[in-house]
Amino acid sequence: MMTPTRPPATTSFLLSTLIVVLVLAIPGNGLAERIQLGMPIACEPGKTCYIQNYTDRDPSPAARDFKCGTLTYDGHNGTDFRLPSLQAQRVGVDVLASASGRVLRTRENLPDGAFHKGAREAVRNVECGNGVLVQHDDHWETQYCHLATGSLRVKTGDTVTRGQPLGRVGLSGLTEYPHLHFTVRHNGSITDPFAHGASPESCGGGEMLWDPALQARLRYQERAVLNTGFATTPVTMEFIEDGRTDAELPSAASAAIVAFVRIIGLKSGDVQRLVLSGPSGKVIAANNAPVENNKAQAFLSTGRKRPANGWDPGTYKAEYTVEHAGQVVLRELWELPVQSH
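Now predict its structure.
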């Protein structure tokens, strides 16, 4: 078992370094030997997990993903598969070997949530947190970061098969929310599994390394709704992240009905609108919010206090839309049944 200190310089990757200067694979760099990747996490993209960030393909201090979009940040060297809440992480989500190979290095037993408690200094040189590095044929490697403390199921030297659990998604290392940071390397260089072999300046070029059966599920989404729900009090980001939003749904006796939504990938120029309607279809609350800057994540809420004559029984509906340049680019609907006393 390797210790969690910095590994020898002869290895092609330093587990202790998450944000690095990227050397992206260039056209002709082993395309004939490309790996075929399975899902590195046991979730359903767009339903029980979401891609928060892609590999940064811009070699300058700016950042852009493989579609020349905003879903990345400077120096990001992998793909972030995000869980919708801490509650989902507490239930347990397996991290899976994306391809068969041999475990080259591991780190385990770093605490979950250290970054929150001690800020960046608490995870200096161990930004990946608990992790696994797997070596594959033809000089390929895959790396898995931010695993839950005590969850690793493999050790250095183990042979693993595609789909085999390596551990569980956690909060170790440099992370503010539960996700798997997944990195792919070929011949020691970072490569983007969504655009292998693409030139750094291209938009949508290169080849996908994912199994063809996964490519539709992993289609690029500029924006995505992460959470929706109803509450009885004003909503905060922490309330949504905790994931226990169904613990006290509004009822006929509630002092208020509040609809909320959390979104990732909003763009400058977007216009958000959240509308809450009563059982008759009449709008009882609404919130319009223009987006001035690109946002990795945001939330919006709207609600109303209980009227003097109480809540009408029936189904309350919330509708969230995002418009850009006059076109609806995202829409989500959700409902709340309210029974009479």
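The helical segments are 86-91, 114-118, 237-242.
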